[in-house]
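Subject: Transglutaminase family protein structure
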Amino acid sequence: MPEFKIQHITRYTYEGSVRDSANQIILFPIKDEYQDIVKQEVHITGNPVVDTHIDYYGNEVGSFTYSEPHSVLLINSKLEVTTRQRPLPINDIFPEQQWEDLKRLQYMVPYIDFLKQEYFEGLPELQAIVEQERSKDETPYQITLRFCNYVYQNFEYIKGVTTVETTLDEVWKLKAGVCQDFAHILMVMLRLLKIPARYVSGYICTNSSNMRGEGATHAWAEAYIPDYGWLGIDPTNNCIANETHVRLAVGRNFSDCSPVKGVYKGSSGHKLEVSVTVDDKNAFAYDDKVVHETSPLQQVTEYPKNSYQRYMEIIQQQQQQQ
Protein backbone atom coordinates (compact mmCIF):
# COMPACT_ATOMS: atom_id res chain seq x y z
CA MET A 1 0.00 0.00 0.00
CA PRO A 2 1.88 3.12 -1.22
CA GLU A 3 2.22 6.08 1.14
CA PHE A 4 3.11 9.55 -0.09
CA LYS A 5 4.11 12.79 1.58
CA ILE A 6 3.08 15.71 -0.59
CA GLN A 7 3.71 19.42 -0.14
CA HIS A 8 1.77 21.82 -2.34
CA ILE A 9 2.80 25.48 -2.19
CA THR A 10 0.83 28.24 -3.90
CA ARG A 11 2.31 31.72 -3.82
CA TYR A 12 0.70 34.93 -5.07
CA THR A 13 2.98 37.96 -5.36
CA TYR A 14 1.21 41.28 -5.96
CA GLU A 15 2.57 44.44 -7.57
CA GLY A 16 1.48 46.48 -4.57
CA SER A 17 -0.22 46.04 -1.25
CA VAL A 18 -3.63 44.34 -1.47
CA ARG A 19 -6.32 43.51 1.09
CA ASP A 20 -9.56 41.60 1.61
CA SER A 21 -8.27 38.54 -0.21
CA ALA A 22 -11.17 36.06 -0.38
CA ASN A 23 -10.19 32.60 -1.59
CA GLN A 24 -11.51 29.12 -2.24
CA ILE A 25 -9.19 26.13 -1.92
CA ILE A 26 -9.77 22.54 -3.04
CA LEU A 27 -6.66 20.98 -1.52
CA PHE A 28 -8.31 18.25 0.56
CA PRO A 29 -7.97 14.84 -1.13
CA ILE A 30 -10.90 12.54 -1.80
CA LYS A 31 -11.45 9.94 0.91
CA ASP A 32 -12.71 6.53 -0.20
CA GLU A 33 -11.77 2.85 -0.18
CA TYR A 34 -8.81 3.49 -2.47
CA GLN A 35 -7.39 6.59 -0.77
CA ASP A 36 -6.85 7.38 2.93
CA ILE A 37 -5.63 10.66 4.44
CA VAL A 38 -3.17 9.97 7.25
CA LYS A 39 -2.49 13.61 8.08
CA GLN A 40 -2.94 17.04 6.53
CA GLU A 41 -2.07 20.58 7.59
CA VAL A 42 -2.78 23.75 5.63
CA HIS A 43 -0.85 26.92 6.57
CA ILE A 44 -1.90 30.27 5.09
CA THR A 45 -0.39 33.74 5.40
CA GLY A 46 -2.09 35.53 8.29
CA ASN A 47 -3.51 32.27 9.69
CA PRO A 48 -7.13 32.96 8.64
CA VAL A 49 -9.93 30.64 9.68
CA VAL A 50 -10.77 28.16 6.91
CA ASP A 51 -14.42 27.13 6.68
CA THR A 52 -15.06 23.88 4.81
CA HIS A 53 -18.07 22.33 3.11
CA ILE A 54 -18.82 19.52 0.65
CA ASP A 55 -19.78 20.72 -2.82
CA TYR A 56 -22.26 19.22 -5.31
CA TYR A 57 -19.64 16.79 -6.68
CA GLY A 58 -18.54 15.55 -3.26
CA ASN A 59 -15.35 17.60 -2.99
CA GLU A 60 -14.25 19.15 0.29
CA VAL A 61 -13.91 22.89 -0.32
CA GLY A 62 -12.30 25.46 1.99
CA SER A 63 -13.00 29.20 2.07
CA PHE A 64 -11.10 31.97 3.85
CA THR A 65 -10.60 35.73 3.84
CA TYR A 66 -7.38 37.56 4.69
CA SER A 67 -8.27 41.20 5.33
CA GLU A 68 -4.94 42.73 6.36
CA PRO A 69 -2.80 44.53 3.74
CA HIS A 70 -0.25 42.16 2.17
CA SER A 71 1.97 41.85 -0.91
CA VAL A 72 2.39 38.06 -0.77
CA LEU A 73 -0.12 35.29 -0.08
CA LEU A 74 1.32 31.84 0.64
CA ILE A 75 -0.85 28.72 0.90
CA ASN A 76 1.11 25.68 2.07
CA SER A 77 -0.61 22.27 2.14
CA LYS A 78 1.28 19.36 3.74
CA LEU A 79 -0.25 15.96 3.25
CA GLU A 80 0.33 12.29 4.05
CA VAL A 81 -1.83 9.92 2.02
CA THR A 82 -2.00 6.18 1.37
CA THR A 83 -3.46 4.66 -1.78
CA ARG A 84 -4.62 1.21 -2.84
CA GLN A 85 -4.50 -0.34 -6.26
CA ARG A 86 -7.90 -0.57 -7.91
CA PRO A 87 -8.68 -3.67 -10.01
CA LEU A 88 -9.22 -3.00 -13.70
CA PRO A 89 -12.48 -3.60 -15.60
CA ILE A 90 -13.13 -7.10 -16.94
CA ASN A 91 -14.30 -7.29 -20.53
CA ASP A 92 -16.62 -10.28 -20.07
CA ILE A 93 -19.87 -8.49 -20.85
CA PHE A 94 -21.17 -8.26 -24.41
CA PRO A 95 -20.37 -4.79 -25.83
CA GLU A 96 -23.98 -4.27 -26.95
CA GLN A 97 -25.20 -4.70 -23.38
CA GLN A 98 -22.70 -2.18 -22.04
CA TRP A 99 -23.67 0.45 -24.62
CA GLU A 100 -27.32 -0.11 -23.77
CA ASP A 101 -26.51 0.40 -20.08
CA LEU A 102 -24.83 3.71 -20.95
CA LYS A 103 -27.91 4.91 -22.83
CA ARG A 104 -29.96 4.61 -19.64
CA LEU A 105 -27.53 6.87 -17.78
CA GLN A 106 -28.28 9.87 -20.00
CA TYR A 107 -31.34 10.75 -17.91
CA MET A 108 -29.95 9.90 -14.46
CA VAL A 109 -29.02 12.88 -12.30
CA PRO A 110 -25.53 11.71 -11.15
CA TYR A 111 -24.34 11.47 -14.77
CA ILE A 112 -26.11 14.27 -16.65
CA ASP A 113 -23.46 16.89 -15.92
CA PHE A 114 -20.71 14.58 -17.13
CA LEU A 115 -22.44 14.06 -20.49
CA LYS A 116 -22.97 17.74 -21.34
CA GLN A 117 -20.91 18.68 -24.37
CA GLU A 118 -19.35 22.12 -24.68
CA TYR A 119 -19.55 23.32 -28.28
CA PHE A 120 -16.46 24.68 -30.05
CA GLU A 121 -15.64 25.25 -33.70
CA GLY A 122 -13.49 22.14 -33.96
CA LEU A 123 -16.21 19.84 -32.60
CA PRO A 124 -17.45 18.53 -36.00
CA GLU A 125 -13.87 17.68 -36.99
CA LEU A 126 -13.26 15.89 -33.70
CA GLN A 127 -16.57 14.04 -34.00
CA ALA A 128 -15.48 12.67 -37.38
CA ILE A 129 -12.25 11.45 -35.78
CA VAL A 130 -14.22 9.79 -32.98
CA GLU A 131 -16.34 7.88 -35.49
CA GLN A 132 -13.22 6.89 -37.41
CA GLU A 133 -11.33 5.73 -34.32
CA ARG A 134 -14.10 3.72 -32.70
CA SER A 135 -14.84 0.09 -33.44
CA LYS A 136 -18.43 -1.11 -33.19
CA ASP A 137 -17.49 -4.37 -31.47
CA GLU A 138 -15.38 -2.76 -28.73
CA THR A 139 -16.52 -2.18 -25.16
CA PRO A 140 -16.61 1.31 -23.56
CA TYR A 141 -13.45 0.33 -21.66
CA GLN A 142 -11.59 -0.55 -24.87
CA ILE A 143 -12.80 2.63 -26.58
CA THR A 144 -11.64 4.70 -23.60
CA LEU A 145 -8.14 3.26 -23.86
CA ARG A 146 -8.13 3.87 -27.62
CA PHE A 147 -9.14 7.52 -27.23
CA CYS A 148 -6.57 8.02 -24.49
CA ASN A 149 -3.88 6.76 -26.84
CA TYR A 150 -5.18 9.03 -29.63
CA VAL A 151 -4.82 12.17 -27.50
CA TYR A 152 -1.37 11.09 -26.32
CA GLN A 153 -0.17 10.44 -29.87
CA ASN A 154 -1.69 13.48 -31.58
CA PHE A 155 -1.20 16.30 -29.07
CA GLU A 156 2.21 17.64 -28.12
CA TYR A 157 3.00 18.20 -24.45
CA ILE A 158 4.38 21.76 -24.19
CA LYS A 159 4.49 23.67 -20.92
CA GLY A 160 3.50 27.33 -21.08
CA VAL A 161 1.75 27.25 -24.43
CA THR A 162 -1.69 27.34 -22.76
CA THR A 163 -3.20 28.70 -19.55
CA VAL A 164 -6.26 27.81 -17.49
CA GLU A 165 -8.16 30.32 -19.62
CA THR A 166 -7.23 28.72 -22.95
CA THR A 167 -10.34 27.58 -24.83
CA LEU A 168 -10.96 24.22 -26.47
CA ASP A 169 -10.75 25.90 -29.88
CA GLU A 170 -7.28 27.21 -29.07
CA VAL A 171 -6.10 23.80 -27.84
CA TRP A 172 -7.56 22.14 -30.94
CA LYS A 173 -5.75 24.57 -33.26
CA LEU A 174 -2.46 24.20 -31.41
CA LYS A 175 -2.68 20.41 -31.06
CA ALA A 176 -0.58 21.04 -27.95
CA GLY A 177 -0.89 21.87 -24.27
CA VAL A 178 -0.49 20.35 -20.83
CA CYS A 179 -2.37 17.84 -18.70
CA GLN A 180 -5.57 19.85 -18.25
CA ASP A 181 -5.83 20.34 -22.03
CA PHE A 182 -5.26 16.64 -22.70
CA ALA A 183 -7.96 15.77 -20.16
CA HIS A 184 -10.47 18.20 -21.66
CA ILE A 185 -9.99 16.85 -25.20
CA LEU A 186 -10.34 13.25 -24.00
CA MET A 187 -13.55 14.11 -22.16
CA VAL A 188 -15.02 15.62 -25.33
CA MET A 189 -14.27 12.41 -27.24
CA LEU A 190 -15.83 10.21 -24.57
CA ARG A 191 -18.95 12.36 -24.20
CA LEU A 192 -19.50 12.28 -27.98
CA LEU A 193 -20.12 8.54 -27.55
CA LYS A 194 -22.32 9.14 -24.49
CA ILE A 195 -19.71 7.83 -22.05
CA PRO A 196 -19.91 9.97 -18.88
CA ALA A 197 -16.55 11.67 -18.36
CA ARG A 198 -15.36 13.88 -15.55
CA TYR A 199 -12.28 15.98 -14.86
CA VAL A 200 -9.91 15.02 -12.02
CA SER A 201 -7.31 17.22 -10.34
CA GLY A 202 -4.61 15.81 -8.12
CA TYR A 203 -1.00 14.71 -8.02
CA ILE A 204 1.09 12.14 -9.83
CA CYS A 205 3.40 10.41 -7.36
CA THR A 206 6.18 8.57 -9.15
CA ASN A 207 9.92 8.95 -9.55
CA SER A 208 9.78 7.87 -13.19
CA SER A 209 11.47 10.44 -15.40
CA ASN A 210 9.16 9.38 -18.24
CA MET A 211 6.02 10.59 -16.48
CA ARG A 212 4.74 14.08 -17.24
CA GLY A 213 3.05 16.19 -14.61
CA GLU A 214 5.41 16.04 -11.64
CA GLY A 215 6.33 19.26 -9.82
CA ALA A 216 2.82 20.70 -10.10
CA THR A 217 -0.77 19.64 -9.77
CA HIS A 218 -1.78 17.07 -12.36
CA ALA A 219 -5.03 16.47 -14.22
CA TRP A 220 -6.63 13.50 -15.92
CA ALA A 221 -10.10 12.18 -16.73
CA GLU A 222 -12.43 9.50 -15.41
CA ALA A 223 -14.78 7.53 -17.64
CA TYR A 224 -17.82 5.70 -16.32
CA ILE A 225 -17.66 2.02 -17.28
CA PRO A 226 -20.83 -0.11 -16.84
CA ASP A 227 -20.66 -2.72 -14.05
CA TYR A 228 -17.38 -1.16 -12.88
CA GLY A 229 -17.67 2.51 -12.03
CA TRP A 230 -15.31 5.42 -12.61
CA LEU A 231 -12.06 4.53 -14.35
CA GLY A 232 -9.18 7.01 -14.09
CA ILE A 233 -7.42 7.55 -17.41
CA ASP A 234 -4.37 9.78 -17.92
CA PRO A 235 -3.95 10.88 -21.56
CA THR A 236 -0.89 12.97 -20.72
CA ASN A 237 1.00 9.76 -19.91
CA ASN A 238 -1.19 7.29 -21.86
CA CYS A 239 -1.91 5.17 -18.80
CA ILE A 240 -4.62 4.20 -16.37
CA ALA A 241 -4.63 6.41 -13.28
CA ASN A 242 -4.33 4.11 -10.30
CA GLU A 243 -2.38 4.00 -7.03
CA THR A 244 0.26 6.55 -8.13
CA HIS A 245 -2.40 9.18 -8.86
CA VAL A 246 -3.68 11.01 -5.75
CA ARG A 247 -7.11 12.58 -6.36
CA LEU A 248 -8.01 16.01 -5.00
CA ALA A 249 -11.31 16.73 -6.70
CA VAL A 250 -13.65 15.81 -9.56
CA GLY A 251 -15.95 17.95 -11.67
CA ARG A 252 -17.19 18.84 -15.14
CA ASN A 253 -13.97 20.66 -16.04
CA PHE A 254 -11.00 22.54 -14.58
CA SER A 255 -13.21 25.32 -13.22
CA ASP A 256 -14.95 22.90 -10.84
CA CYS A 257 -11.64 21.57 -9.52
CA SER A 258 -9.29 24.57 -9.42
CA PRO A 259 -7.02 24.03 -6.35
CA VAL A 260 -6.95 27.75 -5.51
CA LYS A 261 -8.96 30.71 -6.77
CA GLY A 262 -10.16 33.99 -5.33
CA VAL A 263 -10.50 37.76 -5.50
CA TYR A 264 -8.90 40.70 -3.70
CA LYS A 265 -8.86 44.50 -3.53
CA GLY A 266 -5.80 46.16 -4.99
CA SER A 267 -3.61 46.33 -8.06
CA SER A 268 -4.55 43.86 -10.81
CA GLY A 269 -0.94 42.92 -11.54
CA HIS A 270 0.16 39.74 -9.82
CA LYS A 271 2.19 36.56 -10.31
CA LEU A 272 1.14 33.03 -9.41
CA GLU A 273 3.75 30.37 -8.60
CA VAL A 274 3.16 26.74 -7.65
CA SER A 275 5.44 23.99 -6.38
CA VAL A 276 4.59 20.38 -5.59
CA THR A 277 7.06 18.00 -3.96
CA VAL A 278 6.53 14.33 -3.18
CA ASP A 279 8.50 12.41 -0.51
CA ASP A 280 10.91 15.31 -0.11
CA LYS A 281 13.03 15.26 3.06
CA ASN A 282 12.27 18.95 3.63
CA ALA A 283 8.62 18.66 2.73
CA PHE A 284 7.32 19.53 6.17
CA ALA A 285 9.05 22.81 6.97
CA TYR A 286 6.54 25.31 8.32
CA ASP A 287 7.59 28.90 7.68
CA ASP A 288 7.97 30.98 4.52
CA LYS A 289 11.51 29.66 4.03
CA VAL A 290 9.93 26.49 2.72
CA VAL A 291 9.96 27.95 -0.77
CA HIS A 292 13.76 27.76 -0.67
CA GLU A 293 13.97 24.34 0.94
CA THR A 294 11.93 22.45 -1.63
CA SER A 295 12.05 22.39 -5.41
CA PRO A 296 11.89 25.86 -7.03
CA LEU A 297 8.46 27.37 -7.49
CA GLN A 298 7.22 27.10 -11.04
CA GLN A 299 5.70 30.26 -12.47
CA VAL A 300 2.26 29.35 -13.75
CA THR A 301 0.74 32.67 -14.71
CA GLU A 302 1.89 36.25 -15.11
CA TYR A 303 -0.94 38.59 -16.02
CA PRO A 304 -2.32 40.22 -18.15
CA LYS A 305 -1.23 38.56 -21.46
CA ASN A 306 -1.89 34.81 -21.76
CA SER A 307 0.42 32.17 -23.22
CA TYR A 308 -1.73 31.49 -26.28
CA GLN A 309 -1.49 35.12 -27.37
CA ARG A 310 2.29 35.09 -26.93
CA TYR A 311 2.53 31.84 -28.90
CA MET A 312 0.50 33.22 -31.83
CA GLU A 313 2.61 36.40 -31.87
CA ILE A 314 5.76 34.28 -32.15
CA ILE A 315 4.26 32.28 -35.04
CA GLN A 316 3.27 35.49 -36.85
CA GLN A 317 6.75 36.94 -36.37
CA GLN A 318 8.33 33.79 -37.77
CA GLN A 319 6.01 33.88 -40.79
CA GLN A 320 6.90 37.53 -41.47
CA GLN A 321 10.60 36.70 -41.36
CA GLN A 322 10.29 33.89 -43.92
